[in-house]
Design goal:
One of its GO terms (molecular function) is hydrolase activity. It contains 14 helices and twelve strands. With about 375 residues, it is α/β, with parallel strands linked by helices.
């Protein structure tokens, strides 16, 4: 067999387990609809949140910084600094469809409390380079994250680095830990971890009331559509090195959203390979590998993520130095980003700033 074709077939076999896992994840926990289904979004833009979104639309990209990733792709990130010298820098990864601008309110709130924030644009998102909604390899995103953290350690020497992520960004944070935790020469562990509205283990014993509330959200609409024909074509297309985009996110029908998509502030279509690259195949193992202080955050009215899953995940953090779960009152999947900021800052002050900086061997 021709070597390039053989390599592609081996790659397909390795992805099979992830394919099944992610299909189950999308159908079960994300409220997906078939491509022929009515395309109403599970999300709504609350009137109280509109001023936040309108302000974010006006934000400029003047303060962006860049680093070159392993394949020379330019990766953008924005830094929000407090007035005084910070002790901690939070390296934060955005969720699916989003980019770093959405997290400026979080950065501003932390800055007022003396904490610096570095907000990453994943490749193919925001101002970073790369194909939209796709990755060149399954390890591309975690390698980007490693170089992002290494860049911050050079920018902020002797500062504590907390890794955080929202939604898909939380899943990617877990994948980063599983990918590099046993590769000591390439890995410097974060001083803390924040998993916000994502990256949680499924709880089979979820409270019936919470299940009913979530079903009510999903009756309102779906999170994404899955194109069955494109899904079926994922593996055959991989043989020919083609990448269909079977996943299309369903966003609210609103003029702000329409403008954001037009201005490429939002990414709405994804390949399966991107999701393969963003999530760990063994989430339970990822939780066992976490040793640093860890904060789980979920909104009380999250449309996608269940509180019971976050609680079950908290119990699986058996090796973490310190662990805590914050349930944010009246917060949904998106506005939990800024509604949780004060509590997140307090947790960092108590568990990261107050703790001693462990000795670390820099990666080679």
């Amino acid at each position: 067999m021709h070597p390039p074709l053989l390599r592609r077939l081996i790659k397909i076999m390795r992805e099979s387990k992830q394919f099944c896992y992610l299909c189950l994840l999308l159908w079960t926990f994300s409220g997906c609809a078939a491509s022929q289904s009515p395309q109403s979004s599970v999300f709504e833009l609350a009137p109280d949140d509109r001023p936040v979104y309108e302000q974010l639309m006006r934000e400029t990209d003047a303060d962006l910084r860049y680093f070159r990733s392993f394949d020379l792709t330019p990766i953008a990130y924005r830094v929000v600094l407090p007035k005084a010298e910070p002790d901690v820098v939070v390296a934060f990864i955005h969720g699916i469809a989003a980019q770093s601008k959405l997290y400026i309110p979080l950065g501003d709130s932390l800055a007022k409390r003396g904490i610096a924030t570095a907000l990453l644009d994943l490749r193919g998102h925001g101002c970073s380079g790369g194909a939209r909604g796709d990755v060149p390899s399954l390890d591309a995103l975690v390698r980007d994250v490693r170089l992002f953290l290494d860049t911050l350690r050079r920018d902020f020497p002797n500062k504590k680095i907390v890794l955080g992520g929202h939604s898909l960004g939380a899943g990617l944070s877990l994948r980063f830990i599983t990918e590099f935790s046993e590769r000591k020469k390439l890995y410097t562990p974060p001083d803390g971890l924040i998993l916000m509205a994502g990256g949680f283990l499924a709880n089979p014993r979820c409270d019936s009331l919470e299940l009913a509330e979530r079903r009510q959200f999903l009756r309102r609409g779906a999170f994404a559509t899955l194109d069955g024909w494109k899904m079926a074509a994922v593996f055959p297309a991989a043989i020919l090195n083609l990448k269909p985009y079977p996943i299309k996110l369903i966003l609210p029908e609103d003029e702000l959203v329409t403008k954001a998509i037009k201005d490429t502030l939002l990414t709405t279509e994804y390949t399966m390979q991107f999701l393969f690259a963003a999530f760990p195949t063994d989430v339970a193992r990822a939780y066992q590998l976490i040793k640093c202080p860890t904060l789980l955050v979920v909104g009380q009215r999250d449309e996608l993520v269940r509180i019971c899953d976050a609680d079950a995940s908290l119990q699986r953090l058996i090796n973490a130095e310190q662990k805590e779960l914050f349930v944010v009152k009246d917060a949904n999947h998106i506005n939990v980003i800024w509604k949780s900021a004060g509590a997140v800052a307090d947790w960092i002050k108590q568990n990261i700033v107050a703790g001693a900086l462990p000795e670390q061997t820099p990666p080679e």
